[in-house]
Every structure is written in structure tokens, then in C-alpha cells.
Automatic annotation (TrEMBL):
<feature type="domain" description="Helix-hairpin-helix DNA-binding motif class 1">
    <location>
        <begin position="108"/>
        <end position="127"/>
    </location>
</feature>
<dbReference type="GO" id="GO:0048476">
    <property type="term" value="C:Holliday junction resolvase complex"/>
</dbReference>
<feature type="domain" description="Helix-hairpin-helix DNA-binding motif class 1">
    <location>
        <begin position="73"/>
        <end position="92"/>
    </location>
</feature>
<keyword id="KW-0238">DNA-binding</keyword>
<dbReference type="InterPro" id="IPR010994">
    <property type="entry name" value="RuvA_2-like"/>
</dbReference>
<dbReference type="GO" id="GO:0005524">
    <property type="term" value="F:ATP binding"/>
</dbReference>
<dbReference type="InterPro" id="IPR003583">
    <property type="entry name" value="Hlx-hairpin-Hlx_DNA-bd_motif"/>
</dbReference>
<dbReference type="GO" id="GO:0000400">
    <property type="term" value="F:four-way junction DNA binding"/>
</dbReference>
<dbReference type="Pfam" id="PF01330">
    <property type="entry name" value="RuvA_N"/>
</dbReference>
<dbReference type="InterPro" id="IPR013849">
    <property type="entry name" value="DNA_helicase_Holl-junc_RuvA_I"/>
</dbReference>
<keyword id="KW-0378">Hydrolase</keyword>
<keyword id="KW-0963">Cytoplasm</keyword>
<keyword id="KW-0234">DNA repair</keyword>
<protein>
    <recommendedName>
        <fullName>Holliday junction branch migration complex subunit RuvA</fullName>
    </recommendedName>
</protein>
<dbReference type="InterPro" id="IPR036267">
    <property type="entry name" value="RuvA_C_sf"/>
</dbReference>
<dbReference type="InterPro" id="IPR011114">
    <property type="entry name" value="RuvA_C"/>
</dbReference>
<dbReference type="InterPro" id="IPR000085">
    <property type="entry name" value="RuvA"/>
</dbReference>
Amino acid sequence: MIGRIAGRIEYKNTDHVLIDVRGVGYVIYVSDRVMASLPNPGEAVALFTDLLVREDLLQLFGFPTLVEKEWFRLLMSVQGVGAKASLAILGTLGPDGVSRAIALGDWNAVKAAKGIGPKTAQRVVNELKDKAPAVMAMGGAASVATEASEDDAVIEPVAAAPRPKPAPKPNASAQAEALSALGNLGYAPGEAASAVAEAAGDAPDADTPALIRAALKLLAPKG
């Protein structure tokens, strides 16, 4: 599996680029959004890649981040959504836009992508609403700085009576990543923090995807 390619751009076409890696040229297909962000021919570039294997075809697809690559693979898991449609959705919305559309159930946003009809857009939202938090968490983790997690040392007297086990502490790292992911979806810091705190209070050991799912339920419009 070819997971990442770094080299020099030889040329750019409408939907793909040719990247030279030590004398070997790789044709990599990208979305319109990614194409617009790539440097000019002759300049260095690095892309995460996904290899699509068919009986009569091998195609590489390129992405600037691992999060976008994972969205591409997740979108392709939806019935009726192939590589071209996945790139169209990502090209129109970007990874954050896809996260937002699925979290809010906004299939009209997905339908705005070229070649995506209403039934396919609804299928994308419905099939991915429970799977999306795991990818959204990747985005949150990438944008959150590493935090110190060491507790203060406790000196106990000799022959002290056994102390009761402390209540489990909410996972600070998971909360920070969930909060960042919700911020990327457009939620205000205050409401996002409140929802994450409530979700973490209900399930102190929850990981990041579970916190995101719980917080999104709390933030969903009532009625």
C-alpha cells in the first residue's frame, strides 16, 4: 500500500498531478479544492494517498491531511458513492464541511457537490452519522496541543489506613479533542464546552468519538 508520496510536481492537469519521486512519476488524482492549494510545477509537495485497486485499473488519490484521506475512505463506504463522488463531496465542502453536514444532518450541503443527487446525499448523512465521530476526533486531535497529564505526588504516612479509590477522572485529552472537533463544526465555545463537560460527567471513561457523539446529541435541536 502506498500511503504517502513526497516529490516534485512535474505537471498539473484538471483532476490529477504527476509527482516525480527520484525519477519515478506517480499520477495522483485530487479534488478541485486540493488542486487549487498545490504549488506550481517544479516545486516540492507531499500528499497522503489512497490506492484504489480494480481488475483493470490502479489509481492513486491524494490528500493534504490524514483526516481528509479518512473522510474519502469513509464516504466510499456508502452505497452508490465511488471515488469520483467522494472527491466531489470533499472538493465542495472540505473535511470540516463534511463533518458539519453529517453532524447536523444537512444533506442539502452534501447535495451541492457535483453529481450528487438528493437520495445519495441523504444516504451519506444517514449511513455515516454514527461512524463520523471517529474521523472528527482525528481532526480534533491534530489541532490540540499535548497536555501534561501527571498527577501531583501524594506522600502517605507509614501504616496509614487504606484510602478509598478516587472517583474516575474525566479523560482530559479526550475532552480537549472533542471540544476542538465541535469548534471545527461551528459550535460556539461556550455551548460546546458545556455539552462536552456534561457528556464527560455522564461517562468519565469515554474516549473522544464517544464524547463527540454524546455532545452532539445534547446539542441537537430539541423538538
